Structures are given as structure tokens and as C-alpha cells.
Amino acid sequence: MTLTGFKLDLSRYKSPSRRYFSRPTLTVAEALLGSYVRHESPDGIVGGMIVEAEGYLHTEPGCHAFNGETNRNRAMFGPPGHVYTYFTYGNHWMFNIVTEKEGCGCAVLIRALEPVEGIDQMWSRRPKARREIDLANGPGKLAAALNLSRDQYGWDLLDSKLSVLVPPAGYRKRIIKAYGGVVTTSRIGLGENKAAGLPYRYYLKEHPYVSVRIKRGKG
DNA sequence: GAGACGATTTTCT
DNA sequence: GAAAATCGTCTCG
């Protein structure tokens, strides 16, 4: 039983195929809600259910790949289902999943999750958190809680210590319903001239572990 | 090699 | 609600 009352049955989750990640970025971003991220880190397994994600398309300036390939964003141009991590604001790592065809430059930012496995380890990696809800309700917090950083850059989610597991369709529908459906809004933290208004953010409406609830856009 | 900036978090008012 | 903290990456010279 999780803190939110919904009984998450991890045994029903399975590894997706490569095709799961090669679909359109926004499709993947929404599909990842209710999915599970699991990291078999050296200090133990940590994992949780994704409750918030954002899509980034190479065609819009909010995306790191908008201006082409660089040393930093190279992983975004790799095969789908691989990991793109980057460092920002002097302190924080962000965890992204590459989508669409290889060479596309598209990805999904995982912004929040509900801790399920390895919660003790998450507490140790998030010493400033006061409540369990604060362990991973933001992209920087999430990466810290899951022990993700430069080390995971370019990893394959289908063949590494870091993986995504997806629930059966019917079970996923129950999850979505349990949390009041999916909300679509504009993305968080983008400058005004960086396609800030595009509705590429998705989260579980009533889930308490979502990072930010007030932002313009539909929903 | 210098300067500007950021897909954030935390603390203080 | 405002602002500091903090440093890798990119751009330009």
C-alpha cells in the first residue's frame, strides 16, 4: 500500500519493447504516467511510479535539441529508450527518456514520482526533505532520490540497471481513474521566448506527489 | 578564456 | 512570493 491509498501491484508491471519509446513524444509522455522507474543502484534498488512528465520536441525552442546536436545533448539523438541526463542550475540533474526515431532529438522529462522501493535510500539522498512527499516531486529531487546523474548518461532502459516497467492497459486505466484522470498543461520553468505556452506537460490530476499545480494552459 | 544562462531547489520575508 | 545558490555548457572572440 502506498501513501496515497492506491495499491500498486508491481508484479503486474512488465518491460516494454523498444517500440514503446519510439512512438510520438507526447504519446510517450502521457503513457509514462502510471509507469514505473526502477534503478538497481549500488546501494540498493530504488523505484517509484511516474506521476508527472513533459515532452520536448526538436521542432520547438524549449528543447535542448532545437539548435542541433552538441556534446551535451548527444544522447537525445541516440536510439529511443535511452537515457538523457543533464546538469543545471549548478546543483541539479534531470532525467529524460529519449523518444521517436534515432536522430530525432526528442525526449520526455520525468518530473515527479511516487516513491515505492528503496524509500530509506531516497531519504538519505534527499536529506533536506521534510516529508515523504518531497522526496521526488520535482525533476531535480527525483534524480537525486533515484541516484541518477552523469553516470546514467546514454544508458539503455531496456538493457541496464535503470529500467522502466509498464502496467497492463486495463490496470493503467484503473490507476488513471484512481487519481482523477490526466491533466495537460504548459511546461514548467521555460523562459517566455522558449515555447513556454505549449501544452506538453502531463500529470495525474489528484496525485499528491505532483510538483507544481498552478500553470496556465488547458487543465 | 570570459561571460551569460538555465527543463531547480531551498530559504527567508 | 522573491531571491540566492551554484557550475557545466555553449557562444563568441
Gist of the model:
By secondary structure, the chain is α+β, with helices and mostly antiparallel strands. The chain is built from 5 helices and 8 strands; from the N terminus they run ααβββββααβαββ.
Write structural notes for this entry:
It is a single chain. With 219 residues, the chain is an alpha+beta fold. The protein has helices at residues 18-22, 25-31, 119-125, 139-145, 169-178, and strands at 36-41, 44-56, 83-88, 92-99, 106-117, 162-165, 182-185, 201-204. It contains five helices and eight strands, in the order ααβββββααβαββ. It has one domain: 3-methyladenine DNA Glycosylase, Chain A (Roll), CATH 3.10.300.10. Strands 1, 2, 3, 4, 5, 6, 7 and 8 form an eight-stranded antiparallel β-sheet that branches. A hairpin with a 6-residue loop joins strand 4 (92-99) and strand 5 (106-117). It binds a DNA duplex (13 and 13 nucleotides) through residues 54, 56, 62-64, 67, 70-72, 86-92, 94, 96, 109, 111, 128, 138-141, 187-191, 194.
Question: What are the SSEs and their pairings?
Answer:
Layout: H1 18-22, H2 25-31, E1 36-41, E2 44-56, E3 83-88, E4 92-99, E5 106-117, H3 119-125, H4 139-145, E6 162-165, H5 169-178, E7 182-185, E8 201-204
Antiparallel strand pairs: 1-2, 1-6, 2-5, 2-8, 3-4, 4-5, 7-8
The chain binds a DNA duplex (13 and 13 nucleotides) through residues 54, 56, 62-64, 67, 70-72, 86-92, 94, 96, 109, 111, 128, 138-141, 187-191, 194.
Mean pLDDT: 94
Distance between the termini: 29 Å
Structural class: alpha+beta
Largest sheet: 8 strands, antiparallel
Residue windows where pLDDT falls under 50 for at least 5 positions? 215-219
Provide a count of the helices. 5
Shape: globular
Order of helices and strands: HHEEEEEHHEHEE
- What top-tier CATH class fits best? Alpha Beta
| CATH topology label | 3-methyladenine DNA Glycosylase, Chain A
The CATH superfamily is Methylpurine-DNA glycosylase (MPG)
Corresponding CATH architecture: Roll
Q: How many individual domains?
A: 1
